[in-house]
Structure formats: C-alpha cells, structure tokens
Amino acid sequence: MKYTVITGASTGIGYEAALAFAGKNKNLIIVARSKEKLEQLEKEIKQINPDLDVIVKVSDLSVMENVYKLYEDLKKYELETWINNAGFGNTGLVKDQELGKIEMMLNLNIEALTILSTLFTKDYSDTEGTQLINVSSVGGYSVVDNNVTYSATKFYVSAFTEGLAQELGKRGGKMKVKVLAPAATETEFANVALGVNNFDYEESTPRFHTAKEMAEFLMKLYESDKIIGIVDIQTYEFKLTDPVFNFRQSQTMKD
Ligand code: NAP
Prior knowledge:
Elements: E1 2-7, H1 12-23, E2 27-32, H2 35-48, E3 54-58, H3 64-74, E4 78-84, H4 99-124, E5 131-135, H5 148-170, E6 176-181, E7 185-186, H6 189-194, H7 201-204, E8 209-210, H8 211-223, E9 228-231, E10 238-241
Parallel strand pairs: 1-2, 1-4, 2-3, 4-5, 5-6, 6-9, 7-8
Antiparallel strand pairs: 9-10
The structure holds NADP nicotinamide-adenine-dinucleotide phosphate.
C-alpha cells in the first residue's frame, strides 16, 4: 500500500489537493495543526472512496523536533509522493515585521521543507514512480512589494527545489522533483498574511484562482514530465515549464 503525503492539508490548496489525489485512488497521509479540519477532510475522502486509507497527522511543522518526528513516524509506510504545501505569508514592510511570526514563517517555509525534502530524497531518490512536489509561489520568481520576506522564502523554495531536480536528473535519480508556483488563490492565505479573518477575494483581488482550480493545476504538474508548474502573472494561465534558474557546474568540487 503506497501513500501520498500532503502537508498543510487542513485548508486551501492542500485540502483540495488531498481530494484530487483521492479522486486518483491514492491513499493519503494528511498533515496540519488543526485536527478537526483534517478529520473533516478524512470523512470527505472516505465518501469519495471508502476503500482508501487516510492517516491523519496533527503536527506543528514550525517546530523542528516535530518535523523529524513526523518523518520518523511515517517510516513504516511506503510513500509514493510527498507534497510540501504547508506555508504562510506575511504582508507588511520589513521595518514593521513582527519577528515571532517571521521566525515561524522561516521555520515552516524553509527549514521544515528542506528537512522533509532531504529525508524523503535520502529514502526514495532511487525509487521509480516517486515524486516530491514543493509549493512555492509566483512570489518565488519575482520579489513582491510589501511581502518581501515571504517572497524571499519562496525564492529559497524555488531555488532549492529546482536545484534538487537538476542534481538528481544529472545523476540518473529516479524520483521526480517539481515546483508548483501559484499566484493569488482563494484560501486562508490572505487572512494569515494580513493577520485578519475576513479577507474577501471577490472584493479585493482583481484575479485569483480557487483552491480547487489550483489543485487541478497541481495534478497536471504531477502527471507531466515538466519540473515547474507556474501561473502566468499577466494572463493567469497555468503553464508547465523547464527550470527557470541558471544551474551551473561548481567551480570548486569535482562531480
Ligand atoms: P492556507 O489555506 O492558509 O493553507 C495553509 C496550510 O498550511 C493549512 O493547512 C495550515 O493548517 C498549514 N499550516 C500552517 N502553519 C502550519 C504549521 N506551523 N504546521 C503545519 N501546518 C501548518 O493557504 P494556501 O494558500 O492553501 O497555502 C498553501 C501553500 O500555497 C503555501 O505554501 C502558500 O505559501 C502557497 N501559496 C499560496 C498562494 C495563495 O494566494 N493562496 C499563492 C502562492 C503560494 P493549520 O493551520 O491547521 O496548521
């Protein structure tokens, strides 16, 4: 029995992605802090397909001890796909940043993603059919005003994930590594980034995708041979592309 792991599955893109993978008959391991929302998702998945196995893991992934524990707990399962989707943003000028929130963002968006990607790569890079998908952002390819630190975390996600994809590709690794780069998507994201609870996408955002649409794009990326799935910020079309960043041979190390 093989599983798809989705972090940040309690709301938004992760929630809809879990439903989309359930629709493809994939057993799921769903991770977030909100137990109730994950259990609601589990129920919904069971309605789609009662034969699927769904494992709920409640974990705060901004705490590194929990990150290692999560992976250790999942060692007993055979994993097929790992989606590092959990992440959040912060809207505001750098001079006004609340550093407690920023530390959590760096821990989750960068550290947890790197640790989980590394552990999954160690175990599965030579396993045919496995995939690692890291959720970045269009803000991980162009720096977004008033969201500079968040944007920088997503540059890290894009660079690390593209680099890992190239590193493995060059060495004949069997695992596929991919980046999803959404633009504005109707989720809890804006509420969390702005520190409010009533953000209305219809009223405040000229263009956006729904979380369900983004999950469909994620599925297209999963099913393709391309490394990047990115929303074109001009047209809002979803595009599958080759890596964007320059990848070059190290000057100091032999291969
Ligand atoms: P969302 O609705 O806020 O979902 C974020 C998910 O991450 C939730 O399931 C949340 O669950 C989980 N999460 C947050 N902090 C966590 C923690 N400390 N430990 C474990 N899980 C945690 O937002 P979303 O838009 O779907 O975000 C998904 C990804 O898309 C993020 O990486 C985000 O940066 C990226 N993205 C979003 C947009 C957008 O406009 N929506 C655009 C570009 C990129 P709990 O609160 O239950 O823990």
